[in-house]
Specification:
With 376 residues, this protein is α/β, with parallel strands linked by helices. The chain has helices at residues 16-25, 65-74, 76-83, 113-117, 123-138, 147-157, 212-226, 242-251, 269-274, 290-297, 310-314, 326-338, 340-354, 359-374, and strands at 2-6, 34-40, 55-60, 87-90, 104-109, 141-144, 164-166, 186-189, 192-195, 198-202, 231-235, 258-262, 278-281, 302-305, 319-321.
């Protein structure tokens, strides 16, 4: 089976979608799949460690969402036809997708955020909002990372349920696992120094979708109620609306206890999770909720928003709050930190829940779908 794999919207392997692609590439058996990667010129070495034997075909040197969409609309059909693939695989079909494909196509939808975020005043965004549902419906098969995303595909894009397979993402349990706690009050992860105890939210700084501003307010309420020494660590690069997040932190009475890391190296993220007392996931919308599993696998209890797919991913192993209610969010944070018996119970349930997700199973199910549609 010969397939093309589109890497255009996978962020050089550094985002959650990038991790998804990297983990799948590690598990593609060369004996049964002849795969070719294609994408930005500057990504040609991004996946060489995960897939050293796969060919990368550089197709575009102009970075940006506009260039991405235009290339897929204008250039992809002729390029794909020249490669003679049995099928093309789009790991980020919600962000990067041609309007038509000359070969069979399978796309993975991690969320429908591009639909919800499309500005009516931005012409390119408006065009994406118009074309995305049609492009998704033209795929031969769609993989949704959660039941929540599947339902959105049906409701927003009009995709038939019979053409959607739910294949959850995995978690790398060789990287994310509980680490021994020493008595030192400072955790050193070069080039950072984290003073314990701290609670963690690892996500790009995006307002309002990721809900950092309300988390900062809830953290202030937590500090007022408990007078505990905890810090709030916000690990993630600035994105749309990040200035609002920084302004909220600066205005907080507890600004000296709020720490921004900026872009945090993915290789060091497991250690950062394992050193936390608590993970807080306040996001207003998540298609899967990778952060939930990363925390749970690290032995860190989770309090999270009852929003999007988060309850589906975490199930009964997390404590939930209304993401629009700062008092409710703070109340769950206080409960988890002050009730040690409940803390230990949630920690155990989280470790058990993380075991249910596997990259091996994700890759196996994905390859089966590719074999099914190609008949090879």
């Amino acid at each position: 089976m010969k397939i093309g794999i589109d890497t255009f919207a996978c962020d050089g392997g550094k985002s959650a979608v990038g991790v998804y692609l990297t983990q799948l590439l590690k598990r593609i058996p060369p004996s049964e799949v002849n795969a070719e990667l294609f994408g930005w010129d500057f990504d040609q070495f991004a996946y060489s460690e995960a897939a050293p034997d796969l060919e990368f075909i550089a197709r575009c040197s102009i970075n940006g969402k506009t260039a991405n969409h235009l290339w897929h609309i204008a250039r992809y059909p002729k390029f794909a036809q020249s490669r003679d693939w049995d099928a093309c695989f789009f790991p980020a079909a919600h962000k990067s997708l041609p309007y038509k494909s000359p070969c069979l196509s399978v796309g993975v939808v991690h969320d429908m955020a591009p639909w919800w975020n499309a500005s009516k005043t931005d012409r390119i965004a408006a065009l994406v909002r118009f074309l995305l549902p049609n492009a998704l419906r033209r795929l031969d098969r769609i993989i949704a990372v959660s039941g929540w995303v599947k339902q959105e595909l049906v409701d927003l894009a009009g995709v038939k349920e019979s053409r959607i397979d739910v294949v959850p993402n995995g978690i790398d349990l060789t990287a994310f696992y509980p680490r021994p706690r020493n008595e030192e009050s400072v955790l050193l992860i070069q080039p950072f120094s984290f003073r314990r105890p701290y609670m963690l939210y690892a996500s790009r700084l995006e307002h309002p979708l990721k809900n950092h501003v309300r988390l900062i307010e809830a953290f202030g309420i937590f500090k007022e109620r408990t007078n505990y020494p905890h810090r709030l660590v916000l690990a993630g690069a600035d994105s749309n609306g990040a200035d609002k997040v920084h302004e909220a932190a600066q205005a907080s009475k507890y600004r000296n206890d709020i720490f921004f890391t900026g872009h945090f190296p993915s290789t060091s993220l497991p250690e950062l999770y394992a050193g936390a007392d608590l993970a807080v996931i306040p996001s207003m919308y998540e298609g899967f909720g990778t952060g939930v599993l990363e925390a749970m696998a690290s032995g860190v209890p989770v309090v999270c928003a009852r929003a999007g797919s988060l309850p589906e991913t975490a199930e009964h192993a997390a404590l939930y709050f209304d993401p629009k209610n700062c008092e409710d969010m703070a109340d769950r944070m206080v409960t988890m930190i002050t009730n040690r018996e409940f803390y230990r119970e949630c920690r155990g349930l989280g470790l058990e829940r993380a075991q249910a997700f596997s990259w091996d199973r994700c890759a196996e199910a994905t390859l089966k779908i590719m074999h099914d549609i190609t008949g090879k």
